[in-house]
Structure formats: C-alpha cells, structure tokens
Amino acid sequence: MSDIADKPTLSTTETGAAKPGALATPTGHQLPPADPAADGQPVVAGRFSHGNETYAALVWRRFRRSTMGMIGLVLTVALLTMAVFGDFFAPMDPKRPEIAFAPPDHLEFAAPDGSFSLIPYVYPIVETGEFDPITFQPMTGPDLTNPTALGFFVTGHRYNLLGIIPANIHFFGSVDGRPIHFLGTDKFGRDILSRGIVGSQISLTIALVVVLLTTTIGTLVGIASGYIGGRLDAWVQRFVDLVLAFPQLPLYLALASLIPVTAPSPVFIAFVIGVMAVLGWAQLSREVRSKTLALARIDYVRAAVAVGSSDRRIILRHILPNVSSHLIVAVTIAIPSVVLLESFLGYLGFAVKPPLISWGLMLQDTGTFSVIGSYPWILSPVVFVLITVFAFNALGDGLRDAIDPY
C-alpha cells in the first residue's frame, strides 16, 4: 500500500476530469507531460537533429558557416553568370575602336545641377588646355558640362544572346547611346571593361573544359591503378612519374608552337586545351590512387569482395563515392590554376589568337613598362583574374572543411 501511495497519480481539474498525459505528485503539484504527443501535438524531429538529415544537407549546413566559402560561392555564381551572358552585361561593343588609351571616365552620383542622384552620371575625361609644369604633358580632367546619364536595361550594340537569340538590350550603359569607358580603352581604343566581361567566356571555358578532362582521366587512371594493383599499378605509376618529371612551362610553349599561326581560332583553342589536359592529369591520378589504396582495405569493401560483388559494383558503389569528396575540392582548386596558366600563356602569345578575346590576350598590351607607367588602367584585366582565383580558392577552402562533416 505504501508503494502505491508513493506513485504519482493523474491530476484532476475542478470538474474532476484528468488532464491527459499530465502527472501529479501526492501533494497535487502537476508535472509536465512526458510525451509531447500527449497534448495532441505530433512528435517532430528536433530542428538540430541529425537522425534524418541527409549528407548533402549536413554539408550545406556546415558550408554556410564558412564566411569565405559563401563569399566564394557568390562570386563564382556571379562569374559564371557573367560568362554565360557576357554580351548582355558588356556596356560597349568589345570590338568597336574609339580613342586609343583613353582614361577611365569620371563617375559621380551627382546630377548636373549638383543634387544627389541614385543613378550615377559619367563625365568624360578631356584635355583641360593646361600643361603639367614638370612634364609639360597636357593635363586632363572630367568635363562637368557634358554629363552622360546611365541606366539599366538600355539599348546598345546588337549581339546574339547565347549565340542564338538576336538582341540589343544591355544590363547597364548610357541612356543616349554615347560611348562610356569605366576602365578606359586599350591601344586600339576598345573598351577594356566590355572586353574583360566578354573575355571571361573564353578564359573560363578553357579552364572548365581542361579541369573536366583532367579530372576524368586522373580519376579513371587513379582508381584503376590503385584497385587493380600489381604489375599494372607499377607500370602506370612509372608513366605518371615520367609525366610529372617534365618541366611543364617549356613543354607548354614547345607544344603550343607546333600549331600553325594561320590555323582557325577554334582549332588553336582545342589544341591548347588538349595540351593542358595531357599535362595536368598526372597529379590528380596520384592522389586518387592513394585514396583508393586506403579504401580497398576497409572492412565493408572486403566484405563486398567476400560476398562475390563484381569489381564494377565495388568501384561504383563503395570507392568512387568516397573519392568524390576529394574530387570536388580538387576541381575548385584546379580551376584557378588553369585560369592563371591560360593568362600567362596568353600574355606570351600562346593561348588565344585575335579576333577572340581572353584575359591572357588582353594582358599582351602590358608588355612594356612605358605603357604601364603612362596608362596604368591597361592592367585592369588582372582584376578579373584575381577575382576568379580568389572566388574558386575561397569556394574550395569552404568545401574542404564542409565536405567531411564527421
């Protein structure tokens, strides 16, 4: 009887009805219900519960905590969008000649009457009629009497959107169609900003295609070498050592010089992509091989071999998914390396030929110190390369920390 008296009993309301799920002590104090469903509320997994969270959701939740990773993701999406719709974002015709080595226009958020304006005005840079007292060079300055109004979705030069749809609408530019040069012009008077935006199509395409080829070849060779092993592994690794032993820069220049100068631009680009892909897969294959060797000794892989699973199933279901996390990070880190390589080869004249546009080709105008000293804005294409390298490196760094949440 004492045991029964010590047990909590159902509490009753003033009408004598017991509240479902609520327990009461012998003194009449009500305890909270032990089961949330007792109050008629459905039992829902906690917001921070990991029981039903998928691997992709867990990686994304960890990735969002990385500030640099999110900045890299935003910049990467912006760069890819700019490359796909390059002509739409370019304010000027990238092949239209104007005044050679024209300085960047003066931009102010002030209307001609001096009031503040949300939409900036461009004041062209003109000669003031005065001379520098030291160098005796003509001095330039903004022409405040001749402003150019800017706007979004303005009419400009004609182009084919995605190479198919004829259009003449641009994301931003001058309202009246007058030429504007936010980053100045090159030696032929072509707008540097527009050429940089359109040039991203070639530079990023080369980088993405090269990384796709090197990742595919390196993954296949690395997994085959590490999983099969034996004599095949020994011969493949000696060939990888041979590829890695070559000094790449002289070999790039030697192979790129084999194609005739008169070859069509698409053929030249395809040859450059092939050269980069042939020389770039070896290091990734070595990394994938090392991971495959480690995974082949794990218990669940040995169990799959013991039950008679085919090699194809073991590779596709057990080894490749565990290697994919390393591949994702390797891709994001390899893209900026290819962008830098293409820019360097383009600067030397071995990447892209006119009339195509790329960041490396634009940097050829900076070949002499006199040009850089007199016209420093000619170095503006470097900014596109720096932003691209930073974006993909930041993205890869964030993915590297989030891809292995356990």
Uncertain segments:
1-49
Number of individual domains? 3
Number of helices: 14
What portion of residues is helical? Answer: 40-55%
- Looking at the overall shape, the CATH architecture of the largest domain is Orthogonal Bundle
Global Rg: 32 Å
Write the CATH fold name of the largest domain: MetI-like fold
Structural class determined from secondary elements: alpha+beta
Terminal Cα span:
53 Å
How much is the average pLDDT? 80
**What's the β-strand tally?**
9
Largest sheet: 4 strands, antiparallel
**Helix and strand string, N-terminal first?**
HEEEHHHEEEEEEHHHHHHHHHH
CATH class of the largest domain: Mainly Alpha
Could you state the CATH homologous superfamily of the largest domain? MetI-like
Q: What does the model show?
A:
By secondary structure, the chain is α+β, with helices and mostly antiparallel strands. The chain has 3 domains: 2-39, no CATH class; 64-84 and 195-402, Orthogonal Bundle (MetI-like fold); 98-190, no CATH class. Helix content is 51%, strand content 15%. It has 14 helices and 9 strands. The strands form 3 sheets. It has a 4-stranded antiparallel sheet with strand order 4-5-8-9. Strands 1-2-3 form a 3-stranded antiparallel sheet, with no helix packed on it. Strand 2 (18-24) and strand 3 (30-31) form a beta hairpin. Helix 2 crosses helix 14 (381-402), helix 3 (67-84) crosses helix 14 and helix 9 runs antiparallel to helix 11 (311-348). It is elongated, with a radius of gyration of 32 Å. The model is unreliable at 1-49 (pLDDT under 50).
